[in-house]
Amino acid sequence: MKQDVVVPQIGESVTSGILAGWLKQDGDTVAKGDELFELETDKATMSVPSPAAGVLRISVSEDTEVSVGQSVATVDTEAAEAGASAPAGKAAPVAESPPSAEQKPAEENQSAEAEKSAKPADEAGAKSATSADTLSPAVRRVVSEHNLDPADITGTGPGGRITKEDALAAAAASPASQPATPSPTPPASGGETGPRQRRVKMSNLRKRIAENLVRSKQGSAHLTTFNEIDMSGVMELRAQHKDRFAEKHGVKLGFMSFFVKAACNALADYPEANAFIDGTDILYNDYYNIGVALSSDKGLIVPVLRDADTKGFAAIESEILSFIGKAKEKRLSPDELTGGTFTISNGGVFGSMLSTPIPSPPQTAVLGMHAIQKRAVVVNDQIVIRPMMYLALTYDHRIIDGREAVGLLNRIKQQIEDPTQMLLDL
Question: Taking the model in full, what pTM does it have?
Answer without folding.
Answer: 0.65
